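Exercise 7.
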Amino acid sequence: MGTKDKIMELVSAPIAELGFELIDIKLARYRKESRLQLFIDGDNGVSIDDCVRISRLVGPIFDNSGLFKFGYGLEVSSPGLDRPLETARDFKRRVGETVEIYFNDKKQKSVRGELVGADERFIEIKIENDLNKFDLMDIRKGKIIV
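Solution. The predicted structure, written as tokens, is:
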């Protein structure tokens, strides 16, 4: 098991207990010290206070894990608006926003419109005045249009 997997295993559940999801982990090393970035998201977004709470939660877990014997720097943040939408949960969080959808079939042209609904299997996008339903299995990714 790699270091990222061990990190995920250590902190995913405690982070979830606070109502957040661990989206991504970036780990870099400079000389002997490690730099660890955790990206979290929640149904109501992520505030600076949320990042501080998560940092205070996971810091002692890492301190006692033995993973970073030469020390580490920890940064907790949100994944940002440019993060691709890939899961049903990602789309559910962004209902009401303008999105562009890219399909697995690269010959199929992307579509842009207001995301008006999302569940575990489908998303609904309002394109001009028409409602269009797309199966998540056919979608490669979506992105928020700002």
